[in-house]
Amino acid sequence: MIEELIARVAAEDDDAIEELCAIADADPKKLTPYLGALLDLDVVWPATLYRAADADVVGRVIERIDGGRRPDQLNNLLVILAHTAHPLAEGALHRWSTQPPAGSGELHLNALSYAHEGGWTVGPDGSRRDLCGSTAYRWIMRETPRRADGPTCPRCASPLWTAADLDTTEPAVSAALAHTGWSGRLVIETCHFCACYTTLYSQVTPAGVTTWWTGNTWPSYLPNTTEPEDPPALAPVPGPALPSPYLASAWTRGGSMLGGRPDWIQDAEHPDCPGCGQPMDYVGLIGGADLDDYGEGAYYLHLHQPCGFAAVNYQQS
Q: In whole numbers, what is the pLDDT of the chain averaged over residues?
């Protein structure tokens, strides 16, 4: 089957690429023996096809970048290396962060910052830290009554939305949040309206206390006066375990997911913690299609356990 898809890719069949992407999401290792052939065909996007690339393919991508013959492919090749998360890729990104490869002048990021696309980062001590987990659960939406006396957004006065209420005493939650180091109850509240325009932070404790962060800012282009909007009458609860951490969908109903890897609509956007400046860990995705019949885009939830900050940002096409 995969051989046939590769042949169709060679014939410039875009549908074959989509079918290969579905395999990469469900079981990326199935593509490992065929990634060299894809590279031979100059298929360098979507980069997620290369999640399970072996040392040979990773080495070939590094050689292609070092050779400098295809600076037009540099961005895509760096994203490929980020998604492989291979030790060879990590070493190359480290090297290029101080010795940029040919074509870097056209990029908007330092080479090592591309690691975020693959869900990892390198800390101040030089050690790698995964920003995402390997265990995922479908998030099921449940109707939730809104508190009449609940907190409101300081800017638009909309009632705050409880985007997540989790407790690591539940095995599913504990597994999904293992990479964050969090233990206890985690409540993430945000303004569903303003989060569409800026990353909003809150301070959280393992007792389930959540407090709006007073340092939140808004873009200057937003009007000073807006009518308050009711938040979604839905909140996610963990559902069944998923066989792959790559099955979130920011586009389709049923795509909301706790844990695993985000389905970014745009570039990866792991917020920096307001407390220490380090990238925050990813918690989960809530798709607009799961909140409303006409919903679009997706909310992305994040956490930095050492500093006690949570964050919510939003992307749409």
A: 96
The Cβ of residue 240 has, within 10 Å, a number of other Cβ atoms equal to 9
The tally of CA atoms less than 13 A away on the side-chain side of residue 173 is 16
Distances (CA, A) of 196 to 38, 159, 184, 200, 307: 37, 15, 28, 9, 24
| 0.70 surpassed by pTM | yes
**What does each C-alpha distance from 82 to 6, 139, 204, 306 come to in angstroms?**
23, 27, 30, 25
Q: Please, which residues bridge with residue 178 across strands?
A: none
Give Rg (Cα) of the chain.
20
User: 271: closest CA among 233, 304, 223, 316?
Assistant: 304
Which residues are 159's β-sheet partners?
A: 152
Strand positions, DSSP E, 96-207: 120-122, 128-130, 136-143, 161-167, 185-190, 200-204
pLDDT single digits (tens) 124-140: 888 899 999 999 999 99
